[in-house]
From TrEMBL:
GO molecular function: peroxiredoxin activity
One of the Pfam families matching this protein, by short name: CMD
Positions of the Carboxymuconolactone decarboxylase-like domain: 19-101
InterPro entries: AhpD-like, CMD-like
UniProt-listed SUPFAM superfamilies: AhpD-like
UniProt protein name: Alkylhydroperoxidase
Length: 106
């Protein structure tokens, strides 16, 4: 992901705790290489997890990353609404609005 898209709070953490953030980033890269899932699928799974923990920032991040990995807005919205029976309509509705934050800028 390009630096210009990184949120300010993330850049702040990276500046304050450079080695820690580098380790977190390296772990993410290594884990993605360990299995057969493609990047798009991985980001859609991570998007679902971000929604489940109510992390608006992570939802924004994984919507952007899913798009960069080739996901369409329709696939992203489908991934979100698939969660309705598992995590509930109010959480899914919030996630749709967070996804729209990013998708409306694309």
């Amino acid at each position: 992901m390009s630096k210009k898209k990184l949120p300010g709070h993330y850049l702040f953490q990276k500046k304050q705790h450079e080695e820690f953030i580098e380790a977190v980033e390296a772990l993410g890269k290594i884990v993605k290489k360990q299995g057969p899932l493609d990047a798009k699928t991985a980001h859609l799974i991570q998007l679902a997890a971000a929604i489940a923990i109510h992390s608006e920032g992570a939802v924004h991040s994984h919507v952007r990353r899913a798009l960069e990995s080739g996901a369409t807005p329709e696939e992203i919205y489908h991934a979100i609404i698939l969660l309705t029976n598992t995590i509930g309509f109010p959480t899914v509705s919030a996630a749709v609005s967070w996804a729209q934050d990013v998708l409306s800028r694309e």
